[in-house]
Amino acid sequence: MILAVSKLQNPPSPARAYRGRFAPSPTGPLHAGSLAAALGSWLDARAHQGQWLLRIEDVDTPRSIPGAAQQIQGQLLACGLQWDEEPVWQSERQEAYQKAFTQLINEGQLYPCNCSRQTITAALKALGVQTERHQELIYPGSCRSQLGLKQENTLAAWRIALPEHCTIAFEDRALGHQTQHLNQEVGDFVLRRSDGLFTYQLAVVVDDAEQGITHVVRGADLLSNTVRQIYLQKALGYPTPKYLHLPLVLDEFGEKLSKQTLASAIDTSTPTHALKALEQAANHLGLQAVTKERFHSIHAFLVAATANWKDRYC
Ligand code: GLU
Q1: Ligand 1 centre and the CA of 204: distance in Å?
Q2: Does the Cβ of 47 fall within 6 Å of ligand 1?
Q3: CA-closest candidate to residue 297, choices 277, 280, 275, 266
Q4: Nearest Cα to 101, choosing from 150, 61, 67?
Q5: Which of 76, 222, 225 has the most ligand 1 atoms within 8 A of CB, as the residue to mutate?
Q6: Would you say residue 2 lies in a domain?
Q7: Average pLDDT over residues 39-67
Q8: How far, in Å, from the CA of 24 to the mean position of ligand 1?
Q9: How far apart are CA 170 and CA 212, in angstroms?
Q10: pLDDT one-digit tens code per residue, 87-112
Q11: Residue 53 belongs to domain spanning
């Protein structure tokens, strides 16, 4: 009897149908690194017979390049990576981010902060912490006395106050057990910038939840953001998806390919070029079985790659 009651109180959560996504920032066309992330997330969705959604992450409007999102969509389609629903544009979702932000403000979890990078560096120095020029700074909580202030001061950035003991662990499907002490390794992080823009951390969490994303497959450069996102999911009462971080594509100097390192756009001008780009992406993902074969069509390649992906990652 007791068992039956406790079962009723805690019914097993029904398995949600697989929904994955690819979420490029439109700061340039797809390069070998972002194509590998697109292909990995597409293959995972197809291997699970799930949905694959496209989200254009243009929340940081000043960094978005006009036309880049359309270029990315064209490259994906040329590679046979078709998405299942209308793409979501973060620049159109301010209301949803505002709602989540207001919820956290009303709960007294946020505080305004006027610190500049210089102020933070000086505060860290006073605490005896050495910092490097481009290093992400661990915020020492200088403005925490403002915690609980509910008025939306428009000129300040808004940070979330982390509890002192805040170690979060998760199992990455590729990299295994991951753990981060948020307070010590990141510090109270920004959800809304002083220019009024919501940050990637808030936007991605709200969007993943509202789009019902069950599985996130993305590059390992985003691994260190995951614990912040899990923390926000819990703070907002959202479920946590499963995560898989893919090996990064590095250039000849061992640097991550990115728009900053001027990675060149993949060539999808003909099906033969697109197939070649896909084969290289599969090679980066460790899908050796398909990289040894010759394919006469993108479709045939994607079918074989899905089977290879299933063996390697599922
Ligand atoms: N928009 C991010 C990027 O292009 C990806 C975010 C994500 O997959 O969570 O790096």
Answers
A1: 8
A2: no
A3: 275
A4: 150
A5: 222
A6: no
A7: 96
A8: 5
A9: 19
A10: 999 999 999 999 999 999 999 999 99
A11: 19-107+169-179+204-313
Q: What whole-number distance in Å separates Cα of residue 291 and Cα of residue 279?
A: 6
Q: Check if 219 has its Cβ closer than 6 Å to any atom of ligand 1.
A: no
Report the nearest-CA residue for atom 6 of ligand 1. 23
**How much distance in Å is there from the Cα of 25 to the middle of ligand 1?**
6
**Probe ligand 1: pick from 19, 21, 25, 56, max atoms within 8 Å of CB?**
25
Q: Give the distance (Å) from ligand 1 centre to CA of residue 232.
A: 16
- Residue 55 beta carbon below 6 angstroms from any ligand 1 atom: no
Is 238 strand, coil or helix? coil
Residue 79 lies in a domain: yes
> Taking Cα atoms as reference points, which of 11, 29, 9 lies closest to residue 259?
29
Domain-embedded: residue 25: yes
Burial of 146 (0-12, 13-18, 19+ CB in 10 A): middle
Burial class of residue 128, CB neighbours in 10 A (0-12, 13-18, 19+): exposed
- List pLDDT tens digits, range 198-235: 999 999 999 999 999 999 999 999 999 999 999 999 99
Q: Virtual CA dihedral for 284, 290, 296, 301, nearest 10 degrees?
A: -80
pLDDT per residue as tens digits for the range 239-294? 999 999 998 877 767 676 665 655 789 999 999 999 999 999 999 999 988 988 89
- 8-state DSSP, 209: H
Counted domains in the chain: 1
Return the CATH number at 272: 3.40.50.620
23 lines ligand 1 (CB under 6 A): yes
Task: Judge whether 118 lies within some domain.
Answer: no
205 touches ligand 1 (CB under 6 Å)? no
